[in-house]
Amino acid sequence: MSVKWNLFLAIISILFPVTILSAAEIPESAISSDASIVIRLKDPKATSQKVASLINQVDENLSGVVGLNLRTILGRSISNPNLAGVDTTRDMCVGVFLSQSKQPGFLYAVPVANKNAFKEALGEKYHSATHENWLLYSSDQALVDQAMALIKDGQQNFQTHMSPRSRDFFAKGDLSLYINSGKLVQIYQPQLEQAGQKVDVTLNRLSETVNTAPGVNMKPIMSLYSAVAKGALQAVQDSKSYTTALNLGSDGLGLESLFEVKENSKTDQLFQKNPPQKFEELGKFPANQLAYFAGAGNTEALITWGMNFTAQMFDGSKPNAEAKTKFEEIVKEIHKLKFGSYYFSFELGKLSDGVLNAYAISEVEPSQKMRDYTREMMSLMQNISIPGLKQQITFSPDEQQIGDEAVDLTVIKQEVDPESDPLQIQKRMLEVLYGSEGITNRMAYPKGKVLQVMGANASMQKFLDALNASDASKQISQNQPTFKHARAEGLSKANILAMVDLPMGIAKGYNIFAESRQKAGPFTVELMKQQGISTSYLTFSLSTGKQSMETKTYIPVQNLKSGFKIFTLISTQR
Questions:
Q1: Cα-Cα-Cα-Cα dihedral sign, residues 351, 353, 354, 357
Q2: Alpha carbon distance 507, 522 (integer Å)
Q3: Angle, vertex CA 98, rays to CA 96 and CA 101, nearest 5
Q4: Tell me: the pLDDT tens digits for 493-523?
Q5: Which domain of life is it from (predicted)?
Q6: What residues form DSSP beta bridges with 442?
Q7: Rounded to whole angstroms, how far apart are CA atoms 476 and 111?
Q8: d(CA 363, CA 445)
Q9: pTM metric for this prediction
């Protein structure tokens, strides 16, 4: 018995000083559960050095300027412009207290190296109290008193309302933000109810205004807007918290966020209805695309909405009314098919042939039925009328045979009414995107998939070669180093995954613009190599699960570097 008691005392003697140290070292322990928002800056000195290191890799001339600006911003944020007496090697926190009846209150918990110097810099505007090497201050004396009582009595702080995942997100960020959205919903419930009432009123007014144009049916668009707006308001009503963390590394910066909702709420049920996927098929796409995208979740609803929208373009004549009825019947049958994930990528081609070349996959079972339905719809779409636009649809089934796959070809030639496009801007835009021959679209239907290739230079042969290539092939994206790095920075399973090389897209777009003016594009291969401009992808991923939605955004330093170099070069062009 004595041995057990001595062991218990030994454990207490070890844990007790750790507890005291943690209370002294963690400023957020002074912020109560009444706080609506909490912001934490980890080790400002080290974080500033991380920022300077990243900026230095982008451009050496910027790091000094950015460092001074960061110090100024930090000083003004804590009402101590010169950071007098601040210990910049430890974390600092700010709690924001919101109310319907009062102005927002702010409580600062800042580590100090010289308390007197800090207090003098604050002036008489703030009430303050010290706890060991921390200064707690606010313009509201009650918040300071509450913080001191919280530390003294060990009352609940804001972290008691956070889930373990939320606490982990908050703790690991160099700059972290926590929003107690459940509390905000309680505070601003009257405003949320008013917003819900205004959604339908606003959309009805907008629909009445737009529908004054002949031939325009805004009903399907308005229904989408209404669903999105109401869904967003429902998500806010169902929310518990939102946590986001900015993480700075030597090779890039990341932003991770966690949105949590009430158990069994409508939003929770929606999140759980759509499980995330690995999106391995994206790695089989052609390499060196400007953007890659994959999505999973209620795909059939998105596709049938698009088709229902198309159905509204049939005019009111009797033949077209019959065609519209048939079209809508086909849409109902398509809705019965089993849909999976969808994938998309694009690249920019030559101006003379249309610059947009896109590749897409939709997972559909059975894909042969989808082929039959698509062919039926193409025969009906000749009856579609678009205001201000005359179009001719040429559909050629089995136009090409590639291995075992028959490829259907659709060419949509559109002519813009000169009266609606007097400057021929829309006409020129269509020619730039798709070429003078019109929108070229090729489709194939291997088992379980619908393949789609859009653009005069987009090759179904290239797409099929990539999809059927060996896992070690260099022509597919998964063996492209920049793709592999970008994919590794996204969530392993997601509902949405996007990887975009925006700087390279801007460079190629600028070359196309120069070509349209009969000039040589400035961004040659040699120049970009000389300037250190190379392929890199910004990665965004989103995943839903039980009571939560998680997002992760990553920007590699090469993406920032290429973007800055391209911006600098464009700004020097005359």
A1: negative
A2: 9
A3: 150
A4: 999 999 999 999 999 999 998 888 888 889 9
A5: Bacteria
A6: 409, 453
A7: 52
A8: 10
A9: 0.88
